[in-house]
Design brief:
The radius of gyration is 23 Å and the shape is globular. The longest helix has 27 residues. The protein is 73% helix and 0% strand. It is mostly helical. The relative contact order is 0.10. The chain has a domain of 174 residues.
Length: 410
Amino acid sequence: MTKVEEKFFDFIKNNIIYIIPIAATILGIVIRYCGFNFQSDDFNSFLNPWWSAISAGGIKGLAQQVGNYNIPYQIITYILTLFPFEALHSYKLFSVFFDFVLAISAALVVKEFDSNNSRLRQVLTYSVVFCSITVIFNSSFWAQCDSIYVSLILLAIYFVHRHKNIAAFVLLGAAFAFKLQTVFILPVFLYLYISNRKISILHFLLIPVTDIVMCLPTVFLGRNFSDIFTIYVDQTDYGKQIQMNCPNLWALICDRNDTTYYYLFKTISIAIAVLALGIGLSLIIHKSIDLMNRENFLLTSIWTVFTCVMFLSSMHERYGYLLDILTIIYAVFIFKRVWLAVLCNLVSLRGYCFYLFTYDVLDIKLTAIIYTATYAYVTYLFIKEVIINGKKLEISKKIDEAKVITNHTA
């Protein structure tokens, strides 16, 4: 090997921490650029007409609801109309910006959870998340905005583990203001509140307060205050379809356009999800599980979000977005579970391909069988590794040790 070659490989070795994220960023931007002119049905049927209506109405037009997204997104859309860019690229640029925020937020969570503070692990997390094909499709092909609320959730997770509870719950409120699917992660914070007792019930009030504050500008412009609460209520009944291209439990039972017994199935789906999450909470409390522990928290979060996606009705193919990102973070620490991240992301990719390109890679019922089996295995892992073998709270350990000593003395 020549000296030039030696210097080259030494340079690569000494700067790999910088080379990986730079290469991932360039690759991610190039792929996103390829999809920037792609127009999805969502854009043509909804996002573009919303843009036209908001642009025509001006700032006073914010007093009226346009579309079925929450008020903060309507405010953001109005702000975007003030710039000299067309609707398609404006939506996508805004979402891509949050792709960066998402990848950085994921890396921050890994940094907080990593006792070894491995910079390589952090840059790999950033790189994998930023180059995730579903993340790329969501923003630069679909012009959707799921990276916004998920990045805010990740930042909330980061801050709650740094015991910055006010910041964490304000971020949760901001995430909720953008997407109703934020409720998928709320049970985990409820588990933290009850089991670890380092969060106040008052912190939870910051979620609706933040949502209201973010919506208030339009109320001052004449919008009804009740709109802040009714938009999400109306959103849950949109389309009145039991399954909407998400391969969950209901995809095994109903066809996509099936509206038969919609309200009955909706009620049953909520009851099943609440029951499952309630059992999980009861087990965590009974076993005094420490959810500030990395493995406990990540696996509990994955199981909780997966439970919501699996059992709730009217789930879109995009609603597994948070689950996909959490499994990537989990795989960074538990490498033997990389398959879980790959599988969940591939299932989401199947839904994206079907919606964006009308290409059905795999029949949805067969996909639902795979997804349901994966959920069953995640539930097994949750019970085994969190409930049975998971790290307990220190106070519980001391009580158990005292009982052992007492029994031994007796």
